Amino acid sequence: YDALKKAQEPTFDPSLKGVVESVKQTVCSDEYHPSAALIERFAVLSLRAVEPMKIAIVGQFSSGKSTFLNALLGRQILPTGITPVTSKVNYIKYGDDFLLEVTHLDGQKEYHAIESIKRFTDQRENTESIAYLTLYAPIELLREITFVDTPGLNSQGENDTETTMEVLTQVDGIIWLMLIDNAGRESERKMLDQLRGEFGQKSLCVLDQKDKFSSQK
Question: What distance in Å separates the CA atoms of residue 147 and residue 54, rounded to the nearest whole number?
Answer without folding.
Answer: 6
